[in-house]
Amino acid sequence: MLHQSEKTTFIIFSRDSGDLLKNTFESILNQTYKNIEIYLVVNDASDKLKEKLGVYKYKINFTFNQKHYSRARILNESLKMATGSYFAVLAAGDVWQPGALEQKVAFLERNEKAFAVCSDFDVFNKTGIVKDSFFEFKDFFKDKQNGESFLVDEARSYFINSCQKLFSMMLIRNEAYLLHGPFDDGMSGYADFDLFFRMLGNYKLGCIKKVLVGKFFDPHKISYYLNYNMKERIDYLDYLLNDFAIGKKKYKKELKNKLKKNYFSWITYLIKNDETVEARVAAVEYMQKYKVSPGFLGLFIKSLFSNEDKNSNRRYNYFKMDQLQEELLKLNY
């Protein structure tokens, strides 16, 4: 077993004090690597919450009340108190396989040039696995064998093409955060890729091509999350293209192509969901910012007309489509 001299900090964000959070605690406490500390971030740090947590409350080093602060600010405050050499950020429902932490700590100890190491992961719901092998899905590491660990040569391109919220499958070196941080307090979330790109100036991103993490997916929230994540992804790509010098011209072409595809997908989704005003605004926004093309003109014209058969069950059936679920998973993770 790996010598466990270096502590790892787990920071858990949760709006749920039920089974999802308990499953996350269980997965952390069942790690073969035991030198850990846990910080919990909730909306309500009341005595009632502590009662709901039961025996797990004795395993928590500190509970933060998020209140009206951004997640990035709470994350920075948590890391001021943290004593771990490494840290991971999870959401309620994220679970790590028992040996995941040990493998990731071992990787970072072997590779001092890595600011973090991520892994493959499964997405599951109450009935089981929804989708697996997301590295395979992104076509980035097809030449790598299952279980192989490596440093990513084109990490910027990987971030651009995946736009993933990598935190719950990533273990980050605290030294790199202290050198290049903090996280941007003005962000609504905490996936600060600007910080990651700064880290890439001195470090590399590490990967283990193996399913070590599971992420819970709630199909009942598909409508909200699909629209939210599409817009968030577009904002992120637009930021990289216009406000951040990512160093190489070739990335700009990738970004423009990704922006076009994501706008098209988002507008199509809005039209299918009969949100024609929002679709029209999005189509005009794209054409004003980037380029007028037949495809986007076609979407604009389509947005002028409402979908027929409003009283049918089409909306319900649309949200049940496997294709829609696949699209959400691509965007959300």
What report would you give on this structure?
Strands 1, 2, 3, 4, 5, 6, 7, 8, 9 and 10 form a 10-stranded mixed sheet that branches. The chain folds into 2 domains: 8-217, Spore Coat Polysaccharide Biosynthesis Protein SpsA, Chain A (Alpha-Beta Complex); 220-332, no CATH class. It is of the alpha/beta class. Strand 2 (36-42), helix 2 (47-53) and strand 3 form a beta-alpha-beta unit. The chain has helices at residues 19-29, 47-53, 71-81, 100-110, 134-138, 155-162, 174-180, 193-199, 222-243, 250-272, 276-289, 294-303, 314-320, 322-332; strands spanning 8-14, 36-42, 62-65, 86-91, 95-96, 114-125, 128-131, 149-151, 170-173, 204-216. Helix 6 (155-162) runs parallel beside helix 10 (250-272), helix 9 (222-243) packs across helix 14 and helix 10 (250-272) runs parallel beside helix 12 (294-303).
Main structural class? alpha/beta
General form = globular
Assign the CATH architecture of the largest domain.
Alpha-Beta Complex
The overall pLDDT, averaged over residues, is 82
SSE string: EHEHEHEEHEEHEHEHHEHHHHHH
CATH topology of the largest domain: Spore Coat Polysaccharide Biosynthesis Protein SpsA, Chain A
Question: Which percent band covers the strand fraction?
Answer: 15-25%
Low-confidence stretches: 309-320
Give the fraction of residues assigned to helices. Answer: 40-55%
Computed CA radius of gyration, to the nearest angstrom: 21 Å
Sheet bearing the most strands, described?
Answer: 10 strands, mixed
Total domains, how many? 2
Give the CATH class of the largest domain: Alpha Beta
CATH superfamily of the largest domain: Spore Coat Polysaccharide Biosynthesis Protein SpsA, Chain A
CA distance, first residue to last residue: 31 Å
Number of strands: 10
* Count of runs of 4 or more consecutive helical residues: 14
